[in-house]
Amino acid sequence: MPGTITAGTPSLLRAINERSVLELVRRHSPISRAYIARESGLSKPTVSLALSGLLEGGLVREVGRSRGGRGPTAVLYEVNPSAGWVVGIDVGRQWVRAAIANISGAIVARRQERAQVRSADSLIGQIGSIAHQLAAEAGIRWNQVTAATLGSPGVFDPERGVMLMAPNLPGWGRQGLVEAVRRELGTSVTFENDVNLAAIGEGAHGHGREVGNFVYLSVGTGVGAGLVLRGSLHRGAGGGAGEIGYLPIGHQDGPPASRRWGAFEEATAAAGVVRAAKGFGMKGPLTAERVFLAARRGDPAATRAVAIEATRLATAIATLTLVLDPELVVLGGGIGRNGDLLIDPIERELRHLPFRPRLLVSALGEDAVLQGAVATALEAARDRVFARPGRLLQEAAG
User: Fold this and answer.
1) Preceding omega of 30 cis (within 30 degrees of 0)
2) What are the φ/ψ torsions at residue 170 (nearest 5 degrees)?
3) Two domains, one topology: 83-198+370-384 and 209-362
4) Which CATH class is domain 10-79?
5) What is the dihedral of CA 230, 231, 237, 238, to 10 degrees?
6) pTM of this prediction exceeds 0.90
7) 316, 242 contact by CB (below 8 A)
8) What DSSP state is assigned to residue 73?
9) Domain at 209-362: CATH code
10) 208 Cα distance to chain centroid
């Protein structure tokens, strides 16, 4: 009967075997035929047949021969890096950063430009220009890019595919923004909150690699938290999980409007640090960076401003800890990276909690969002590029 699946259906068996072999090559390359056979339980002739199909399809390639040991050397295989390409984009108030990587995850080109934030249209055009320049630098056509991921401030609802709000980028929360970016890039684009991507990046390449439950707390132009629970990003019902900038704070500290939603970001982000320092008597043009530099030199006003900042961050971390019980809190963003001035006072503030997370400064620095964008795009691209054996399996079953 046509389409019936039986144990002996050659196309079905070949598809299953190719997918199994491809997964082993992806996880363990460079890898030999003998190692694949040993790990998969398949016979060497079966592995050879599967490798032939994957080589023919351009999904794997020979990468040399094994060295050492007794007997003849063995051919080694790896995933063909040029089987697919991805682009990661980090859109912030100050900078647009982007990188292009091959399907193996190696970044082959990157660019950074001052963000053209005068309007959403100018920013969209800049994103498209940077992305196409990256493809040219990598020596590929843009239509070879399999997936792209863009991170920016704001809440993106993945169910409805819309940007709900983006207060730090003018016009970024407008109706049709997502569709406009996708038209500009002309490829499959995934949108994500920038702090969520930073958490993904930290989980893939930083302190979160061996941690199932952690919080990435970003403090800079804005404030937000990326929540990784049981090894997966937690977005919440509508994509707004971790938007702690909208927490209220007590009226005893902070700006005059501190009782309204959004007061925590107003008090704790870069502008709040500058405002606190001026309130304590610092003079001249100030930035949060200058305040922290002055605190390192022992400036009394700057030191008091940094102490207030640490207390406010401790309040947020205590709240997150008592609700989520994370093993680790990673500090990131332009302010969060000042761990030498923040971690000790924060830990003193947390000492009365019944359970406390470890506190670390991000291992990725300003690259966290971009690394998370690339990692997210890679996951989507690998699903598509490596789906060929799966499609064969479906065809055999259909």
Assistant:
1) yes
2) -55, 125
3) yes
4) mainly alpha
5) 160
6) no
7) no
8) -
9) 3.30.420.40
10) 12
